[in-house]
Design a protein that fits this description.
With 875 residues, the chain is α+β, with helices and mostly antiparallel strands. Strands 1, 24, 25, 26, 27 and 28 form a six-stranded mixed sheet that branches. Strands 16, 17, 18, 21, 22 and 23 form a six-stranded mixed sheet that branches. Strands 29, 30, 31, 32 and 33 form a five-stranded antiparallel sheet that branches. The N and C termini lie far apart (118 Å).
């Protein structure tokens, strides 16, 4: 019995059915993508215009458009030309298709080749162009580069070349390599589709040999340029002990790169000649030879030199790179001789008795990482308000004395609304803003152990003076709110002050701050309804001609949108100055390409106790140059963003000057900082934390000692916090007899032990000594205890242990506050608050005891003054 013949699948019928569906789907996708692009550009333009920075948007968009056209166009053109040439070269060598399916797809390819190539070119244009648009900062930095006035030791080029020019050159070469690879892959795919590449049969057609020879020749010309640039990338090489041009880089990698450059040019010449000769073996030999040369010269030879010469003689071979690295690193991180001084801890002696100095210390017995629940419980007023999980530290004149305070903004918290009240109107029209700030001296509590507030309640009252209390722009603000701006005739619908007490009544208000984007037109409403995926913006009758939409409300996000070239400090802190609440954000100009400076992970260096609860989120990335060049402010009521230059050094920061050229008028001169705001600017913690991480190694100035590493330090872990993250740096106010000093401080321990190694502080108050770093080293023969050992002494002290046991009785929880240290007369004074927190979800920490440690004396009492008296006596 004969077997039945297989029935061919009706592909032609399936194609006829799918064709209209695919066309409609393509049209819908094109419309959706087009709308998304339009909405993104239109709303971005409107937002920048609303804050008076439309020029930033225009310059950025114009630069991105240029890059899209250049890179996307080059990639698409390479694909089209390569595909068409490959088809023409394949025609003489095409063989008859074998089989019905092969015949069908071959016919389809021949009929639709131009359309398919155009579609592929369009996709390539979009992918390559949009990818290139992300490099707009490199382009502008190159166009406006300012000189550093400092040359590298290897190539004797100004550092601006490595910071501004080299990254763009590297991008350009990589783009050219990608373009040539697109051309090669396209030619190969077309050859396969034309059937000229088969496992059996003839060799590669002569025309294709010529085409591939020409393309590979162009590729090797580009690779020659890449080998030339690779040499300059060695200034940030990690092959040696430190980030620098190492012994192996000098004696192996540099010669190898020059050899590969010469071989690449030679191979290109041979391949260009072979484009006419069309010899397959020449193509294979040239390409294969370059691959082998790259492996040998680029990998094997440097590895042999590293293992045979560099490693066995590293202590002597790496002396020069280490010396260059130390000098470059200390300057790049602001730790050179002009910015810091080193002394012995024992040499720090005051003319006043230690007890008198300690009495003037404003020790932080209110830990800003522990007392937010206390602020919330006592000053939340209504559940719609809240404070961030780590409060801020500032200082204000109170009763004629400059006092350090813990301060927090009372912000609206939509997430705390009961589910029944989470209507669209409540979330976006009613609960639009927070109200007021709350502050308490960080060295004082009341008789109950609670903060002694100097600014509190609703409406706000206290010593900070009259100010606009409404906070429309903050760290906990809703994603967006719709308010009735100028021109609105409706009654206020925004909740302003909630009802306080049984007889109180809530009040409403209408926003008059001038911030936000006007959305009175249907086009604006449609655009933002699309942007936020919320049709209520378009459909709600409460959105009218005078309505304004507030979004991008987090202070750091607003600054990042205006100046994306800045690396921002993780903490934005509120300041009451000039009748307004303004958020201050420190901006850093950074680079990862400063020659021979050690690279640091910014997030790792700035992660500590204050970041573990999620309140602070440091930016990620590697840096080997950093300056606090910008102080930015965001008005909590109007949302206005202002950038001020902050050049404290003798030489203005070249990166800041570069961006000032790129965006003229964006950064205001330092002289325009309001006088009321200036005292509240401070040395930022993230910068200080990066610098202290660098100093754990770079306090060692001798290359030999640096190589041995025996004198390295480490940042101690926080012994008061479970999990022991790194101990944070602390703002401290104290008076050693020469006047009040506002400083940022930290301690170091020895590398392999927990003993104290050094104490570091920086003058954090704007003035002639601002930014001056002081490192007090513990004597080598001294066995001064570090924070971990001090904490062990505290908890093992019989009196303290007994009292802690009593506090823990009845289910209460003991919460340890920050362990702060301050140098007094050659020793460190340690102060640690101890809080009690009752069982239950609504409990909050209350200060119960203060521990003071000085030398071998430990005191444990109900107040700071009593504990200090117990240690120092009546003096």
């Amino acid at each position: 019995m004969a077997s039945a013949e297989p029935v061919a699948f009706p592909f032609h019928l399936l194609y006829r059915w799918l064709r209209p569906v695919l066309i409609v789907a393509a049209l819908v996708a094109a419309v959706v993508v087009g709308l998304q692009i339009f909405v993104s550009l239109y709303t971005s333009s409107a937002w920048y215009a609303s804050i008076g920075q439309h020029d930033v948007f225009v310059r950025r968009f114009r630069t991105q458009l240029v890059l899209v056209l250049i890179v996307g166009g080059a990639s698409a053109l390479a694909l089209l030309l390569s595909g068409l040439l490959a088809y023409r070269c394949s025609i003489p060598a095409m063989t008859p298709a074998q089989g019905a399916w092969a015949l069908r797809y071959r016919r389809y390819w021949h009929r639709r080749r131009r359309l398919l190539l155009v579609l592929a070119a369009v996709i390539t244009f979009l992918v390559a162009g949009l990818g290139a648009a992300g490099h707009w900062q490199q382009w502008l930095a190159w166009r406006n580069a300012a000189s550093f006035g400092r040359n590298d030791a290897q190539f004797h080029r100004d550092a601006s070349y490595f910071v501004f020019t080299y990254p763009l050159e590297r991008f350009g070469v990589n783009t050219a390599v990608n373009v040539m690879e697109i051309a090669l892959v396209t030619a190969l795919v077309v050859a396969i589709l034309c059937g000229v590449l088969r496992r059996q049969g003839r060799h590669l057609p002569a025309g294709m040999v010529g085409l591939f020879s020409a393309l590979f020749g162009l590729l090797y010309v580009v690779k020659a340029g890449a080998y030339w640039l690779d040499r300059f990338g060695l200034v940030t090489s990690h092959r040696g002990v430190v980030t620098a041009v190492s012994y192996t880089d000098t004696h192996a990698v540099l010669p190898a790169k020059l050899a590969l450059l010469a071989l690449a040019l030679l191979a290109a010449l041979v391949l260009f000649a072979n484009a006419w000769l069309r010899r397959g073996w020449v193509l294979v030999l040239s390409v294969g030879g370059m691959i082998v040369a790259g492996i040998v010269a680029g990998g094997i030879y440097p590895a042999i030199v590293q293992q045979v010469s560099a490693k066995p003689n590293a202590q002597s071979a790496e002396q020069a790179p280490i010396a260059r690295n130390i000098a470059a690193t200390r300057w790049a991180f602001g730790l050179d001789g002009g910015a810091s001084r080193t002394a012995s801890l024992s040499s720090l002696q005051s003319t006043r008795p230690a007890g008198a100095v300690a009495a003037a210390l404003q020790a932080r017995i209110l830990d800003p990482n522990q007392v937010p629940p206390t602020f919330t419980q006592l000053q939340q007023e209504r559940s719609i308000y809240g404070f961030k999980s780590t409060l801020d530290v500032d200082h204000y004149p109170i009763n004629g004395t400059d006092r350090a305070v813990v301060i927090g903004a009372r912000e609206v918290t939509i997430g705390s609304l009961p589910s029944a009240q989470r209507t669209w109107a409540n979330q976006h029209l009613v609960y639009t803003h927070g109200y007021g700030v709350v502050a308490a001296p960080l060295d004082t509590v009341d008789a109950q152990g609670e903060p002694a507030f100097v600014e509190s309640d609703l409406p706000p009252r206290g010593v900070l003076g009259p100010y606009q209390p409404r906070i429309y722009f903050g760290q906990r603000s809703p994603a967006y709110s719709i308010v009735d701006g100028p021109g609105s005739t409706g009654r206020g619908r925004e909740l302003d002050l909630p009802a306080v007490g049984g007889t109180g009544q809530q009040t409403t208000t209408t926003y008059r701050g001038g911030g936000g984007v006007p959305i009175g037109s249907l086009l604006r409403q449609f655009a933002y309804a699309w942007k936020f995926r919320d049709a209520n913006i378009l459909l709600s009758s409460q959105v009218g001609s005078g309505s304004r939409l507030l979004y991008v409300r987090d202070p750091r996000a607003r600054v990042a949108a205006v100046a994306p070239w800045l690396t921002l400090d993780s903490d934005a802190y509120p300041v009451v100055a000039g009748g307004h609440v303004v958020w201050v954000v420190d901006g850093y100009t950074t680079s990862n390409n400063y020659p021979e400076s050690q690279q640091q992970n910014f997030r790792t260096a700035t992660t500590n106790t204050f970041t573990t609860n999620g309140a602070l989120s440091p930016q990620s990335g590697q840096v080997n140059y950093i300056r606090n060049s910008v102080k930015a402010t965001v008005d909590a009521y109007t949302g206005a963003v202002t950038l001020y230059a902050w050049d404290q050094a003798a030489q203005p920061d070249p990166i800041l000057r570069t961006w000032e050229r790129a965006f003229p008028g964006l950064v205001q001169p330092q002289s325009r900082i309001p006088a009321e705001l200036l005292p509240h600017l401070r040395y930022p913690q993230d910068l200080f934390n990066v610098q202290r991480q660098v100093l754990t190694r770079y306090h060692v100035s001798q290359p030999g000692a640096f190589y041995n590493g025996s004198d390295f330090w480490k940042v101690p872990t926080d012994p008061t916090v479970p999990g022991h993250p790194l101990q944070p740096s602390y703002y401290t106010t104290y008076d050693d007899g020469s006047g009040p000093s506002y400083a940022l401080t930290t301690s170091f321990t020895t590398l392999n032990r927990r003993n104290l190694a050094a104490y570091m502080s920086v003058d954090a108050q704007p003035g002639p000594d601002y930014g001056r770093i002081t490192v007090l080293e513990a004597p080598v023969t001294n066995t001064a205890e570090g924070p971990g050992q001090i904490q062990n002494d505290i908890e093992s002290d019989p009196q303290v242990a007994q009292q802690l046991t009593l506090l823990r009785g009845g289910g209460s929880k003991v919460v340890l506050g920050n362990l702060q240290s301050v140098p007094i007369n050659g020793q460190l004074l340690y102060v640690e608050p101890i809080y009690e927190r009752a069982a239950g979800g609504t409990s909050f920490p209350i200060l119960r005891r203060v521990v003071v440690v000085y030398g071998h004396r430990i005191a444990y009492d109900a107040t700071l003054s009593a504990a200090l008296k117990a240690v120092f006596g009546s003096a």
